[in-house]
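Table 4 source record.
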Amino acid sequence: MSTIEFKGLVKKYRDVTAVNELWAEAKPGRITGFLGPNGAGKSTALRCLLGLASPTAGLAQIGGKTYAQLAHPLQEVGAVLDSSGFNGSLTARQNLNIICAASGIDKKRIDEVLELVELGHVKRKRTKGFSLGMRQRLSLAVALLGNPQVMILDEPANGLDPVGIAWLRKFLRDLANEGKTILVSSHQLAEMQHTVDDVIIINNGKLVAKGTIAEITKGKSLEEAFLGLVGAA
């Protein structure tokens, strides 16, 4: 099973401890919200999870392996960290074609994922003309190319209008219902309350709380619970 696990993760940059002894997990078939204020250490933890930074101590693993140990990373993990990494002079389809060629993914998958993220009608449009929301959907298409069991998403609702946010909520739920492990980092607490099953909250690099959405909120809104926990921390 492709469980995401942070096992005593520590990441230091000289005298700054960005992540301090993080123990948490995200389970298959569930959407886990990864929450915290700016500078809490969320992005650093995700970078360690995706092999973009090396832990100072502890582990960040996917299915019991570090990202570097995965035999076919794009087929096992789909990630959205930034929606600006596309060649604007190429079409949506051409951008995905390059990724498929580099990673050995069947190009037949391109049209499938573009339809999944509702960009099939603009697949021949150059991405320099895409709105932020369209680029965000295209990033999701990239993450889905290898049909991975794990999805790691940093602010996936950026640039989406209310209709797009509602679409994203259903989209993530459908993926979770397929048994995929979904880890979502976001500041949109009101939306997260309607999206996630479980919550991990960190502040100043340390774990503040983790549990189901009901266990964390205790009858309050997620925003109220979050502010109370972070304030207490």
